[in-house]
């Protein structure tokens, strides 16, 4: 058996500041750039670090089999080796799956959890089969053509009508990804378990954010996570807060970065108070 070392991931300081940082984990098939506009709207003084997950952006795959758990360990290792004692982990979509895995595997590191347009449940058999089909198609073509149609589903109806500029932006981000990374990520997501119980056990503030027009991880999934994490009237200044972002779909982070930044700023405040 060959031993492989977990490689550190590429990280980017999106806003300078002090104290406990926000660590921003991107969705699929994107990279840290999806968080840039949101970070610009954060309250000043909050440190924000964008991470490219394995096989995305500037982070290479490191030979490990596809798994969300491996991504979580790679994020944890990257952050602790950079000297971070703890962090508020914020994940969008696939990044949310990673955030939940990180909270499960390294709970002491997670000072707070931000779950944006994501879910704690596992894939249905149908969704899992579709992911594996797409991974196979990407492998066969050695292109990302199989996922180029995604922006039409990622943004909401309001953005489709009024934010047409997002389409070329999302398209350019997707085209920049490696086929190997796209296929690996699909297989990692397909294999993930239900992590609702992680939210039930977590002793840290949780913020759940969802676009009102999100059809991929809709409001019902967000409400499921809030219920699991505890009621908004809970002890830690609201152990679970739900923010519904009007006029946005699954990409609320880029459709209305200001609204998402406000929710994350509030989460940061709750974490500081909780500590």
What layout of secondary structure does this protein have?
Layout: E1 11-15, E2 17-25, H1 36-40, E3 45-51, H2 68-81, E4 87-92, H3 94-105, E5 110-116, H4 125-141, H5 151-154, H6 157-162, H7 166-175, H8 179-190, H9 196-201, E6 206-211, H10 219-229, E7 240-245, H11 252-255, H12 257-274
Parallel strand pairs: 2-3, 2-4, 4-5, 5-6, 6-7
Antiparallel strand pairs: 1-3
GO molecular function: hydrolase activity
Domain AB hydrolase-1: 21-257
Pfam family, one: Abhydrolase_1
Short description:
With 275 residues, the protein is α/β, with parallel strands linked by helices. The protein has one domain: Rossmann fold (3-Layer(aba) Sandwich), CATH 3.40.50.1820.
Low-confidence spans: 231-238
The CATH H-level homologous superfamily: Alpha/Beta hydrolase fold, catalytic domain
Q: What value does the average pLDDT take?
A: 94
**Based on CA inertia axes, which overall geometry fits?**
globular
How much of the sequence lies in strands comes to 15-25%
In whole angstroms, the N-to-C terminal distance is 43 Å
CATH class category name: Alpha Beta
The SSE string, one letter per element, is: EEHEHEHEHHHHHHEHEHH
GO molecular function: hydrolase activity
Domain AB hydrolase-1: 21-257
Keywords: Hydrolase
Protein name: Alpha/beta fold hydrolase
